Amino acid sequence: MVTTLVDVLNPLVPTAVHLLMTSVQSNQLEGRGILAYLVRVLPLLNKEARDLWRKEYDALVLLTLCDYLFDSGHRTRYLDGVLPDLGNDSQNWYDPLDAELMPDQTGQQIIALESIHKNRGLAARRIVTEEAVEFDSESIAATRFMLSIVREHAAFKLHPTYAQHFGTCQRVGCSRPALLSPPEVTEEDDDESSSSEYWKCCRDGRAPPPTSSLPSDMSFCSHGCFKATNSEFQQLVKFEISTPPCETRRGGGATPSRLYRAAVKRNLGIARALRARPQAQTSHYPSSMANRERLLREQTTMLSVDLGLLFAAALVYELPSKLRPNRPLPRSENWREQGVCFLSAACRVRATYLKYGRGELARDGTELWLRRLRDNLLTVF
Fold first, then answer.
1. 242 Cβ partners below 8 Å, 6+ apart?
2. pTM recorded for the entire structure
3. CA distance to 105, 258, 308, 313, per residue, from 261 (Å)
4. Nearest-CA neighbor of 178 among 163, 192, 190, 189?
5. Domain spans in the chain, listed from the N-terminal domain onward
6. φ, ψ for residue 19 (rounded to 5)?
7. 359 CB contacts (<8 Å, ≥6 apart)?
8. What is the DSSP letter of 222?
9. In contact, 369 and 354? CB cutoff 8 Å
10. pLDDT tens across 136-176, in order?
11. How far apart are CA 378 and CA 381, in angstroms?
C-alpha cells in the first residue's frame, strides 16, 4: 500500500492544533511557546501541509491569542497579531453582530494604538486564566479573545468620530480596518544622505518629494499587508542607477568630459531597457497606469538633469581659466556622494529641462534644452 505525503501529514496538523488548544485551556505555560511556533510554521513546509492547516479554523484564533500572550511580532498597526480569516474576516469587521453580542450603543472613544494593544494583552491573559479555572470544553479561550477584539471594534464604529480615525486597508484584496496614521519615518544614514539628496533634487528640485504613492504613507491593517505591498512596490520602481566608469585604458583619471560621456552611455542603455521592459502587474500594491507613467516621468527627469549638469560641467571645464568660474566641478567617479555641493546647479539645470526638455530622456548633446543650457552656461555654476 502506497502512503502519500498527505496521509503522513494528515494527523500531524490537527494534533498540533489540538495540543496548543489544550495547553491554552488548561493554562499550561510549559511548552506552549514551542507548540505555537509549530502551528505557525506547519503551513510553510509544503503545499499539502498548507492545505491541511487552512482547514483548521482554530489555528487562526489560537495564534492570534498567542501573539498577544507572548507580545510577539510587530505592533505598529491596528490589527497586528490578528490573523485574517479568508472565510469571514470582512464579515467580522463590517457586518453587524448579533443583538446579544453588540456592545453598548453609545460607542467608545477611539484611543491610542499603544493603549489598544495593551488592553488586548490584558484581556488575553484574563480570558486564559478564566478558562483554566472553568475548563469548559464547550468554551475556547482563543475564540472568546477574538470575539472581544471584534466587539471592541464594533464599539469604535458606533462613535461619531470613527470615520476620522479608521479607513480600509490599502493593500489590494484586503478590506480590513486600518488606523489612518502613517508609521514613523526612519532617518537615513549619513553616508547615503548626500547622494540621495542630490538625486531627489534632480527629480523634485527644492520642493519636498511627493509621498502619496509610497507604501510608508499609506494605511494598512497590519505589518503583513504593509510588508507585502512595500516589497512589491520596491520591485515595481526598482531603478538601479549604474553609470559606466570613465577612466581610460591608459589610467587617465575622471574629468567632467569623461563623466559626461559615461552619463550619455548610461542613458542610452536605459532608453533601450525601457523600450523592452514589460508592463508591470501588481498583486498587492494599489497601482494604476497613471502611477507608472508618473514614476517613469520622474525617472526621466532625474537622469536627464544629471546628464545636463555634467554637460554644463564639461563645457565649463573647457573654458579658458580666465573665464572659468571659481566653483567646484565633478572630477571623480563618486562625485555624487558630495552632491550637496551641486544642488543649486541641479536646480538651474532642472528649470531649463522643464522649460525645453519636453519630458524626453536626454541621450546626447543635440537636444534643444541642452542648447539652451549652453547659451546660459555661466549661470549654472
1. 266
2. 0.68
3. 71, 5, 11, 12
4. 163
5. 5-168, 239-379
6. -65, -40
7. 297, 300, 301
8. S
9. no
10. 545 588 888 998 999 999 999 989 999 989 999 999 888 89
11. 6
